C-alpha cells in the first residue's frame, strides 16, 4: 500500500458488492442503528461520534491513576501503615492493566467505526501523530525536569522521546521517564498498522467475523500460557516478588508490553467494530457488560500474574465497548454521554500522560515523610486535582489547538487544472 492509497481502497466485485448491500440492509432491522450508505456497500453510522465511548475514556484513565497510587514503592508510596498500603494495593493492582487494555481495544474500535472512506494513509498518519505526540513530548520534558533526569541515561531518554523504548526488554528502559509512556509506543505501531489491517479486515465476509473475533480473543487469553511455557521465569522483574507477581522481566515484557503482542488488542477492537456495523454482534447492553467486567476484575486477583493483566477482562471489555457504541448509534441514554463525562473523556489522554508526573513529583517534594490513612487520602485528592487541572490546560492550550490547526497540511497543493 502506498501513501497515496485510500484506506478503504479496493472496490469489491459486483457479486460481493451486492452481497454487502444485502447484509447492510439487514443492519437497520437487526440492530436499529441509524446509518447511511457508502460507496463500498457498507453502512456507516449517521454520526461517527460516540459520546458514551468518549465518556468511558476517563474511568479507564482513572483506573490507571488509582493503580499508581496503590503501588507500594518508595517513589510513590505515601501511607505509613504497611497493612493499609497492601490492602489498597490488593484492590488496585490490576486496575492499571484493565485501563490500558480498554484503551487499546477502544482505539481499534473507534478508528474502524469512524474511518474516512476517501482518507489517505499519509493523512491518517499525520492526524494521529499530531494528536498524540505534542502531549507526549511535553510530559516527557516535565518528567525529565521534575525527577527522571537524575537517574535516566541519555540513550534511554532519547529512546523514550522517540517512542521506541517499549521495544527494549529491559525494565528500566520500557518503563523509563514517564512510566505510562510505554503504551504510546504500542499505539504508534497500531497507527502504522491500521491502514493495512483495515484493508485486510474489510474483505472478511460478515458471517466469518465471529471466527476472527474468537481466534484473536483466544490468542490474547492464551498469551500467558505460552509465555510461561517458553520464556525463562528468572530473574523476577524488579519489585515483582514483593508484590506476589511471579514473572521474569522477559515474560512480563513479552506478554504485557511487547507492541506486536498488544496489536492483538487493537485488532480485536477493529473486528468488533466491523461486527457491530454489519449487524453481526450480540449486544448484551451496558449494564450486563459492566457487571461482567466487575466480576472478571475480581476473578483476575485469583489467577497467576500474567493471566490477570488482560486475559480475564478482555471479553467483558469488548462487550462493554460494543454496547456503548450501539447505544450511541441508537441515540439511547447512557451515564457516560452527558457533558461532564464527555469533557472528562476529552481531557483523559492528557490526564493519562500527566498523572504519573504529578504523583512522582509530589512524593519527591514531600521528602521521606509517611502519612496516616486520612492524610494520604487528602494528599491523593490534591494530586488528582492537580493532575486534572494540568490535563485540562494541556488539552485546551496544546492538544486541541494543534489538532485543529495541524491535522491537515496548512498549504495544500492546488488542484490540477
Description:
It is an enzyme of class 2 (transferase). Its EC number is 2.3.-.-. It comes from Streptomyces noboritoensis. InterPro entries: Acyl_transf_3_dom, Acyltransferase_3. β1 and β2 form a beta hairpin. The chain is globular and about 60 Å long. The protein has one domain. It has 16 helices and two strands. 66% of the residues lie in helices and 1% in strands. α5 packs antiparallel against α8. It has 417 residues and is mainly alpha-helical. The protein has a two-stranded antiparallel ribbon with strand order 1-2.
General shape? globular
> Structural class per helix/strand content?
mainly alpha
Average of the residue pLDDT scores: 88
The string of secondary-structure elements, in order, is HEEHHHHHHHHHHHHHHH
Q: List unreliable stretches of 5+ residues.
A: 9-32, 36-43
Oligomerization: single chain
Topology:
Blueprint: H1 14-31, E1 35-37, E2 43-45, H2 51-69, H3 82-92, H4 95-113, H5 121-146, H6 154-161, H7 171-174, H8 182-201, H9 209-230, H10 249-257, H11 259-277, H12 285-300, H13 305-310, H14 314-329, H15 339-365, H16 373-406
Antiparallel strand pairs: 1-2
Helix pairs in contact: 2-4, 2-15, 4-8, 4-11, 4-14, 5-8, 5-15, 5-16, 8-11, 9-11, 11-14, 12-14, 15-16
InterPro entries: Acyl_transf_3_dom, Acyltransferase_3
Keywords: Acyltransferase, Membrane, Transferase, Transmembrane, Transmembrane helix
Domain Acyltransferase: 52-395
Amino acid at each position: 500500500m502506498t501513501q497515496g492509497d485510500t484506506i478503504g481502497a479496493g472496490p469489491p466485485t459486483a457479486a460481493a458488492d451486492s452481497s454487502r448491500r444485502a447484509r447492510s440492509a439487514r443492519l437497520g432491522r437487526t440492530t436499529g442503528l441509524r446509518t447511511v450508505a457508502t460507496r463500498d456497500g457498507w453502512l456507516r453510522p449517521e454520526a461517527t461520534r460516540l459520546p458514551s465511548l468518549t465518556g468511558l475514556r476517563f474511568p479507564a484513565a482513572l483506573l490507571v491513576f488509582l493503580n499508581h497510587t496503590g503501588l507500594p514503592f518508595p517513589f510513590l508510596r505515601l501511607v505509613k501503615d504497611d497493612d493499609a498500603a497492601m490492602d489498597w494495593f490488593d484492590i488496585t493492582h490490576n486496575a492499571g492493566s484493565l485501563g490500558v487494555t480498554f484503551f487499546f481495544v477502544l482505539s481499534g474500535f473507534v478508528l474502524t467505526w469512524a474511518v474516512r472512506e476517501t482518507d489517505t494513509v499519509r493523512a491518517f498518519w499525520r492526524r494521529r501523530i499530531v494528536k498524540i505526540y505534542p502531549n507526549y513530548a511535553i510530559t516527557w520534558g516535565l518528567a525529565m525536569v521534575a525527577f527522571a533526569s537524575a537517574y535516566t541515561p541519555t540513550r534511554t531518554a532519547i529512546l523514550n522521546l522517540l517512542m521506541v523504548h517499549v521495544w527494549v526488554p529491559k525494565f528500566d528502559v520500557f518503563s523509563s521517564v514517564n512510566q505510562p509512556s510505554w503504551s504510546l509506543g504500542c499505539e504508534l505501531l497500531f497507527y502504522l498498522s491500521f491502514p493495512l489491517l483495515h484493508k485486510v479486515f474489510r474483505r472478511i465476509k460478515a458471517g466469518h467475523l465471529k471466527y476472527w473475533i474468537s481466534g484473536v480473543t483466544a490468542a490474547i487469553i492464551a498469551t500467558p500460557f505460552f509465555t510461561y511455557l517458553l520464556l525463562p521465569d528468572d530473574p523476577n522483574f524488579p519489585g515483582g516478588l514483593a508484590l506476589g507477581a511471579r514473572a521474569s522481566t522477559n515474560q512480563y515484557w513479552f506478554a504485557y508490553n511487547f507492541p506486536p503482542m498488544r496489536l492483538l488488542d487493537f485488532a480485536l477492537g477493529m473486528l468488533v467494530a466491523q461486527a457491530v456495523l454489519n449487524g453481526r454482534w450480540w449486544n448484551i447492553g451496558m449494564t450486563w457488560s459492566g457487571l461482567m467486567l466487575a466480576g472478571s476484575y475480581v476473578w483476575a486477583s485469583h489467577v497467576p500474574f500474567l493471566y490477570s493483566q488482560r486475559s480475564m477482562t478482555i471479553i467483558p471489555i469488548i462487550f462493554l465497548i460494543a454496547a456503548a457504541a450501539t447505544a450511541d448509534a441508537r441515540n439511547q441514554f447512557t451515564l457516560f454521554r452527558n457533558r461532564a463525562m464527555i469533557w472528562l473523556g476529552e481531557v483523559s489522554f492528557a490526564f493519562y500522560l500527566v498523572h504519573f508526573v504529578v504523583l512522582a513529583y509530589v512524593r519527591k517534594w514531600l521528602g521521606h515523610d509517611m502519612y496516616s490513612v486520612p492524610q494520604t487520602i487528602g494528599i491523593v485528592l490534591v494530586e488528582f486535582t492537580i493532575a486534572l487541572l494540568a490535563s485540562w490546560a494541556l488539552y485546551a492550550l496544546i492538544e486541541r489547538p494543534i489538532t485543529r490547526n495541524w491535522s491537515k497540511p496548512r498549504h495544500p497543493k492546488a488542484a490540477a487544472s
